[in-house]
């Protein structure tokens, strides 16, 4: 056989040298350029978001509006014409004295003009206001009583809404004291989100609590369902069932967020309200259930990959020692894939934390501080989606919304980085025995 196919063993440095191929060189450069461009775009997006939120970090007094016009801003004048020299133009030589109104008949003097009278004249002293019954003085007014309830009579002083006037005076006084002063940072740790007011307040505590509440509800629902589904698919389902179950669950990730939000708004809200009988139809629980539907595909896919990556020697050794399939799955396979499952949960949290449309349509959008899961809430992402189009470019409200966006960006970036580099790296080292 060697005589039929002789092998050339005369290898030289030139023959072993990699030949230059233009197509491979271009493909390599294009791939590396796309990767570099993706990283650059992410950095530029974060730079833009953070730059738009920078004005709220500037302490001190802001410049007040000018009410006087300086001499430098006066319009230019041409010539020395004064206002007194300006006279209307005249056309023709006809004097104004010749212009007289037309007269019909003999002229009538003003003294001859008298008002028409109907009947005998009535003097002003005879005119009196009509009265119905005896006149009632303010001192005669007494409060009426209906059982234990006392109703005060209406007078000129009580018809004024004193509460509204006092509130307006208080807001005007606060606005006057804070005029020209940046008070944004002092309101971040409050619970009130009132961006449009004489005294605007940008309390992030209510938004943060609402975001955390919805995230916890969503993960309590999506986490167990997705992990158990991944465990069944990886350890118990046949190959035919696996080919059916996995694409169906992953297909849920292709659903637009607005479709899931609309489903929660129309179907889930009515269904759960009829079951639990709460007052607020849209609340944190409805938003959490809807966001769980969006997070299940991510958690399922990554968990199933982690469970399938467990070496077969682990399961074979467990079964050889007499353990059942369920014992092997729960006490051998699942603990071995814990780092990957933890990474899946982190990515699911990031998906829920930054969700906009579902939170905007299903949570009620009311920043209420309550431990009740059936109360309306407002999240960070929903606040940006609801108010960004109504803000004025460059104002404090505009900058605060971008600051919230930078917080979401940092949170999602940190979660993805931890899940990708630390947790998955730990999983690989565990399987390699390092």
Overall geometric form:
extended
Return the structural class. mainly alpha
**Sheet bearing the most strands, described?**
2 strands, antiparallel
How many DSSP-defined strands? 4
Mean pLDDT: 77
Q: What is the CATH level 1 assignment of the domain at 214-432?
A: Mainly Alpha
CATH 4th-level superfamily of the domain at 214-432 = MetI-like
Q: How much strand? A: under 5%
Show unreliable segments.
59-70, 156-164, 170-181
Query: Which strand order do you get reading across the main beta sheet?
Result: 1-2
- Which radius of gyration do the C-alpha atoms yield? 40 Å
CATH architecture of the domain at 214-432: Orthogonal Bundle
The helix tally amounts to: 13
Compose a concise summary of this entry.
This protein is mainly α and 434 residues long. The protein is 53% helix and 2% strand. It has helices at residues 13-16, 22-52, 162-177, 205-235, 239-251, 257-276, 284-308, 312-320, 325-336, 338-353, 357-362, 380-387, 396-432; strands at residues 144-146, 149-151, 193-194, 201-202.
């Amino acid at each position: 056989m060697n005589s039929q196919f002789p092998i050339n063993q005369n290898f030289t440095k030139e023959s072993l040298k990699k030949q230059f191929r233009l197509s491979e060189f271009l493909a390599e450069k294009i791939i590396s350029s796309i990767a570099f461009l993706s990283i650059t775009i992410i950095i530029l997006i974060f730079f833009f978001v953070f730059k738009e939120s920078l004005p709220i970090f500037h302490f001190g007094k802001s410049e007040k509006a000018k009410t006087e016009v300086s001499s430098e801003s006066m319009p230019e004048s041409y010539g020395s014409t004064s206002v007194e020299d300006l006279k209307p133009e005249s056309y023709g030589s006809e004097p104004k004295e010749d212009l007289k109104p037309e007269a019909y008949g003999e002229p009538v003097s003003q003294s001859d003009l008298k008002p028409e009278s109907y009947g005998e004249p009535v003097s002003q002293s005879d005119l009196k206001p009509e009265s119905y019954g005896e006149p009632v003085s303010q001192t005669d007014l007494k409060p009426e009583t209906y059982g234990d309830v006392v109703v005060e009579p209406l007078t000129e002083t009580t018809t004024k809404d004193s509460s509204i006037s006092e509130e307006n005076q208080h807001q005007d006084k606060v606005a006057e004291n804070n005029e020209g002063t940046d008070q944004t940072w002092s309101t971040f740790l409050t619970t009130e989100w009132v961006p449009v007011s004489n005294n605007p307040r940008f309390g992030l505590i209510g938004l943060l609590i609402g975001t955390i509440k919805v995230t916890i509800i969503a993960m309590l629902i999506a986490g167990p369902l997705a992990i158990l589904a991944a465990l069944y698919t990886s350890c118990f389902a046949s190959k035919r069932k696996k080919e059916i179950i996995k694409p169906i669950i992953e297909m849920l990730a292709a659903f637009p967020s607005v479709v899931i939000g609309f489903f929660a708004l129309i179907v889930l809200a009515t269904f759960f309200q009829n079951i639990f009988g709460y007052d607020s139809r849209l609340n944190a629980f409805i938003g959490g259930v809807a966001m769980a539907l969006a997070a299940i595909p991510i958690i399922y896919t990554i968990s199933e990959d982690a469970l399938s990556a467990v070496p077969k020697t682990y399961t074979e050794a467990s079964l050889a020692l007499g353990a059942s399939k369920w014992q092997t799955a729960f006490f051998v396979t699942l603990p071995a894939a814990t780092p990957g499952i933890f990474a899946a949960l982190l990515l699911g949290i990031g998906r829920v934390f930054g969700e906009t449309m579902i939170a905007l349509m299903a949570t009620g959008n009311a920043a209420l501080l309550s431990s009740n899961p059936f109360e309306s809430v407002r999240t960070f992402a929903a606040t940006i989606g609801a108010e960004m189009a109504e803000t004025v470019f460059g104002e404090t409200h505009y900058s605060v919304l971008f600051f919230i966006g930078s917080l979401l960006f940092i949170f999602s970036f940190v979660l993805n980085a931890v899940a990708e580099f630390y947790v998955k790296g730990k999983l690989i080292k565990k399987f390699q025995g390092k």
